[in-house]
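Before the break, one more example. Copy the sequence into your notebook; we will annotate it together after we see the structure.
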Amino acid sequence: MLSIEEITDDSRELNIGEVSEYILAIPKFADKIGTEDLRALMNKLGDPQDKVRSVHVAGTNGKGSTTEMLRLMLTESGFKTGSFTSPHLVRMNERIAVDGVMISDEDFVSCFRKVMKAVDAYSLRHPSFFEFIFAMAAVYYAEQDVDFVAYETGMGGRLDATNIITPVVSVITSIGMDHMQYLGDTVEKIAYEKAGIIKPGVPVVHNAINNSDRDLKERAAEVIKNRAAELEAELTVVDSIDERLIRWIDLSELENTAFLTGYQRDNASTAIRAFEIIREHIADSVSEDINKVILRALNKFIMPARMEKLRKNVIIDGAHNTDAMPQFLDAAAEMIKREKPERVYFIFAVSNDKDYRGMVRMINDAALFDEIFITTFNSYRKTDVNIIKNLFDEYSGKAGTKKADDTAGEFRPVVRTIPEVKKCLAKVLSKLGDRELLFTAGSLYLAGEIEEILGFEE
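Here is what the structure looks like once it is written out:
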């Protein structure tokens, strides 16, 4: 691995491989430095995060999609717009992009070196993995002279590295029970962490559309409402689908199939309201009809690992908790109803810090899949396949479960375990017929590995 001396020595050329290796190793030797020390680092870098107007997005689910929709709306308005997202699926560069184009290897290495030089020259504490990449991103956006940046939080919000920015608008997407060991074991505690991005006097938009647990959504919204009131931040609660979306879909003006899925309509409704607030701040510099901009942006929207078709009958989704899983299952059910496949396969892997019992129960109750393949991914957070299979056996053994399109009869899917993703995918693809469908979900780690495998094959 690179040494500090090698990184700060300008005569030593660095390549993307060794820089990526160093950044990925940061969790082994550096803890989170926190807001005060991060501000000190950013100050030595010239406070690049304060040189560009920004939008801040937090939440349990829908952060990435909402961030990308906002980025597109700003880009379609004529602004040069950066986006900071996580996690990456295949390459670390994906996290830092301008107008949808990820940072080049050369610029990635350059920004890495600048951050490390500041850490070394001023004897600062070494930032954590996420803090380091955030600092690199802020440097890059300032250098690229972008007009806006849409920043997605990593986890939580209150203590997140991105929370040192002061945005034009804050956005809090759907709140659910996730990362409980870090954020708290109640929805109120989790919502409090997400609400930590609210700034005094800065308007905030919250997606409280109810798709599963009304009580949970209402309790989360109450926490956000109270925090916004304390900081005199005008709050807009989005609790229904924007009527324009329905009209555009009905008239075939919105042709993007991504919005055939309910959860992307939720995310779009949130992004639209946030964009309207942004437009109120920049009305003098944009004259085009806002609806034309929004429609054009949504028609260009593509989000990897969100009901993404990698092939005509291979669909991957990043649903990785009990808030996102019902939305994925609803979207899969809609697709199955439309396409009427002869057989449906499902590949599932999950992190060990998730409520995988709850996810397995939801998958079983949905009764959509004829064969389920349980696998793992390359991470210390992976869950043993036999633990998950035992849960499927437990739930599928309960009487009364019926396949979604059956009128009668007990349904028990075939459940298999193939621990290695590559072998698991190869096995399913060898069985997959033209009139059959394969879905994958459970983890963005899984989605990323499948993206990489199929990308290499093409």
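The chain has a mean pLDDT of 92. Residues 40 and 124 are 8 Å apart (CA to CA). Try to locate both features in your own notes.
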